[in-house]
Amino acid sequence: MTAVPALFRGLFDDAAVFPPGDMPLPEAVPAHRAHRAAWYAEAVGPFLCGAGRLAELTALDLSGVPVVLVLPSGVAQLGPALAARPSEVDLVSVEVAATTPVREVVAALDGQLPEGVTAAVEIPRDGGGLARSLDALAGTPYRAKFRTGGLSSEAFPTEAELAAFVTGCAERGLPYKCTAGLHNAVRHTDPATGFEHHGFLNVLLAAGEPERAGELLAERSGKALASAATDLTAVQIARIRGSFTAFGTCSIVEPLADLAELGLLETPLENR
After folding, report:
1. Contact 24, 49 (CB under 8 A)
2. Residue 223: partners with Cβ closer than 8 Å, 6 or more residues away
3. pLDDT of residue 125
4. Residue-level pLDDT at 98
5. Helices 159-172 + 200-208 axis angle, to 10
6. 130-137 and 102-112 helices, crossing angle to 10°
């Protein structure tokens, strides 16, 4: 029997080198390898690295480390990053901020992305272009990406904003990932900052019932969310994970601890 339930397998992309974690690369890569050898390895996604730090990877042992390149400045970074990629980097995907119209990003990905490498396009939160951006991605091989937090309160979308993204993707059959601010399973107010954090368990359930996305994203009862997650069928779980594929987190351990506390993940006896 696997230690990680299907609902959470491959859900946590390792963004340890990004804020607020900011782990140095020489520490983050060995830590990622340890995650991939741990009892919870099935929950761990690839290692995320900014395209500007490619050269730093060459001095590190990358065996068994699938890498995602993050291009915060847009698709103009893609060609140079691919050209500079060290041969030892196992590039599995790129994540591109849509600093230009999404249709232009899609065209560049179509023309430059190596075979076997996937991509996610970060949709801008411009208030009025969501439908247009999602339309441009619909029918392509690429996922949407949505920012769900950051270092300021403005970086966190409202429940309505995130619900519009979730339902918009569902209407178009468009898979997506999220990034930032989702370290915890349940929606909450951070007592230190006052920021309103979305919960990754809320997002998972909203992906399964997009018509109730607003309601599910607003739920603050861990007991209620855990009960709903426990009742999911295998078919429902497959549909959820076909939509909400992953999220970037600077901590792998923190979301796992939340799931254990909610009774959704059982830590093996030898690891307690």
Report:
1. no
2. 262
3. 86
4. 96
5. 40
6. 20
Q: How many Cα neighbours within 13 Å face the side chain of 266?
A: 6
User: Strand runs (DSSP E) across the chain, as ranges?
Assistant: 12-14, 44-50, 66-71, 90-97, 118-122, 143-147, 176-179, 188-189, 196-197, 244-249
**Mean pLDDT, range 124-148, rounded to an integer:** 93
**Preceding omega of 255 cis (within 30 degrees of 0):** no
Mean pLDDT of the chain: 95
Q: Are 93 and 68 a contacting pair, CB within 8 Å?
A: yes
Structure tokens at 220: 């603050």
What are phi and psi for residue 63, nearest 5 degrees? -60, 130
Q: Distance between CA atoms of 229 and 214, rounded to whole angstroms?
A: 17
CA distances from 56 to 52, 60, 112, 206 (A): 9, 8, 23, 38
Hey, what amino acid is at 262? Answer: L
The residues spanned by each domain of the chain are 6-265
User: Taking 60 as the threshold, does the pLDDT of residue 47 lie above it?
Assistant: yes
HSE of 56 in the Cβ direction (CA atoms, 13 Å)? 13
pTM above 0.90, yes or no: yes
6-265: what fold? TIM Barrel (3.20.20)
pLDDT in tens, 244-261: 999 999 999 999 999 999
Residue 1 has pLDDT above 50, yes or no: no
Residue whose C-alpha is closest to residue 49's, from 74, 83, 23, 75: 23
The per-residue pLDDT for 8 is 98
